Amino acid sequence: MPRGGTRKGAGRPSTWASGCSFKDTKLIRVPNAIFDQVLELAHRLDKGEEIKGEEIDLDTKSIKEENQGLKHKLVKCNLEMEKLRAINQEAQQLSLNYDSFPILPDEKDLHQMRDKALATLKVGLQSSIYKKSRKVVDIFIKYLTKSLFD
To answer: What is the DSSP letter of 85?
Structure first.
């Protein structure tokens, strides 16, 4: 009783009408949008069906529309980037030295202002409203000090 190796007739039969094996086929890459249509066309050709004169309408319109949409978005992004670069250059030209002309109070003063504002709330220090309000203001102060003072 033989073991291992290839056996004649073993494996899944070919799905091609001509019965061609894996060795007799070639791998191609096609867009996902038209894959099913191309495969159906290939099987019809393999069966020997007449395709001449028949109009083959591969659905590539959706891919073209999607590509046009992406190109449009890319152009808009590039325009926005150019605007941001111009604003950044203008800001650098107009940049002020914080030490010589403070625009905002320093972090210590901001925390004192926070405490005064939170003191006006008619809730206790342990209430969730007070805690959430303080957290929001702290995040704002952290953002301001990080982006403007660094």
So the answer is: H
Q: What are phi and psi of 127, to 5 degrees?
A: -75, 155
Q: Rounded to an integer, what distance in angstroms lies between the CA atom of residue 126 and that of residue 123?
A: 8
| Separation between Cα atoms, residue 77 and residue 86, nearest integer Å | 14
56-95: pLDDT as tens digits: 666 566 667 777 888 888 888 888 888 888 888 777 777 6
pTM of the shown model: 0.34
Among the listed residues 18, 16, 59, the one whose alpha carbon sits nearest the alpha carbon of residue 37: 59
Task: Report the 10 Å Cβ neighbour count for 14.
Answer: 14
Q: Which of 47, 41, 39, 52 is nearest to 20 (CA)?
A: 47
Rg, C-alpha atoms of the chain: 35
Q: How many CB atoms lie within 10 A of CB 85?
A: 10
